[in-house]
Amino acid sequence: MSIVDDLKTRYKGSSLLVRFIYINIAVFVVLRLVGFISFLATGSSASLVQWVELPSNLHAFLLRPWTLITYMFSHYDVMHILFNMLWLYWLGRIFLEFFNSRQMGGLYVLGGIGGAALYLLCYNLIPHLSSNHSLLLGASASVLAIVVAIALYRPDYPIQLFIFGRISLKWIAIISVFIDIIGIENNNMGGHIAHLGGALVGLWFWLAIKSGHDITSWINRCIDAVVMLFKKHPSKTPRDPRAEHGPKYKYHKSTSSGSSTQQKDNTPSESSDFDEEKLDEILGKLKQSGYAALTDEEREFLFNASRKR
Question: Distance between CA atoms of 114 and 131, rounded to whole angstroms?
C-alpha cells in the first residue's frame, strides 16, 4: 500500500476532529511545497498563500470570496499550525465529551466566519484601520470558538498542565481572551480581532444551547448541501434500449368468480389458467431481471397479452 493510499484509509477511518486536523496539515504542506519549488525554480518564494488568506480590503475580498472559508484551514508558519492543531485536538476532545462531531464541525466553521466578520468590520469601519491593508490566515478563531464554548458549558472541567498543574477550563478561556484583548495593539492586530470574533461565536453557541437551540444546525445543512453536490450518486442499472420501444402494457388479474364468457378470438393468453400462470411467471421475471432477460418467445407472448388486454 502506498503512502497516499495509507493516508486515504486513515482519513476515511478517522473522526471529524482528526479529519479537520488532516485538512489543515495537508493545506500547510501544499502551501510550503509550492513555495519551496518556486524558490528552487526561480529564486523567489512565490506561493499560493495569497489565494487562500482573507484580505481586509472589501474590494479584494469580493474578488476572492472563497477566502472566507479557506483562511480558517490554512497556515504558513510551523509554530502557528502546531499550536493551533494541538489546541484543537486537546480542547476538541473535551468538547466531544458533551457534544457531537457535527456540532464541533459546525462551530469550527461558524467560529471562523465570526472571526472573519469582526475582522472585516473593524478594518472597514474604524477610521485608522481602514487605511491599512491586512491579511488573515489560520484556524485560531475557529479553535477559540470551541475553547470558549466548552469552557462556558463546563467551566470547572479540570485540565492538567505540565507546568501549572491542574487548572479549571474556565481559566484557559479567560487567559486566552485576555491575551487577545491586550495583544490588539501589537503587529498582529487583525489576528487578535479575529480571535475575539471566534470567542463571541463560542459565547453565542453556549447561550443558544442554554435556551434549547443549536446554532450549528443551519451551517451543517449548508455543508451537507455542498457535499451532496460533489458526492457520487449510485449509477442506475442500464436499461435495454429495446425496452424503451417495447410493448407498454397493464396487467389486471381477473377477480370475478365462476365461468367467463368465451371470446371469439380464443388466444392462448386468455383461454386457460395455464396461460395466466405463464403470464404471471413472465411478469415476475420482467420485474426481477428486466426486459433484456426475456426470450424472444416470452417477449412475443407478452406483446400479444398486452395488446389483448
Answer: 22
With 0-12 / 13-18 / 19 or more C-beta atoms within 10 angstroms meaning exposed / middle / buried, residue 104 is: buried
Give the span between the Cα atoms of 23 and 71, in whole angstroms: 12
At 189, the amino acid letter reads M
Q: Give the 3-state secondary structure of residue 154.
A: coil
- Give the model confidence (pLDDT) of 71-111 as tens digits: 999 999 999 999 999 999 999 999 999 999 999 999 999 99
Taking the model in full, what pTM does it have? 0.72
Helix runs in 154-188, H state only: 169-182
* Sign (positive or negative) of CA dihedral 127, 132, 137, 138: negative
Nearest Cα neighbor of 133 from 30, 59, 45, 239 is 59
3 in a structural domain: no
Domain span at 265? 241-308
Residue among 76, 69, 58, 62 at smallest CA distance from 141: 69
Q: How far apart are CA 72 and CA 88, in angstroms?
A: 12
Q: Does residue 175 sit in the same domain as residue 290? A: no
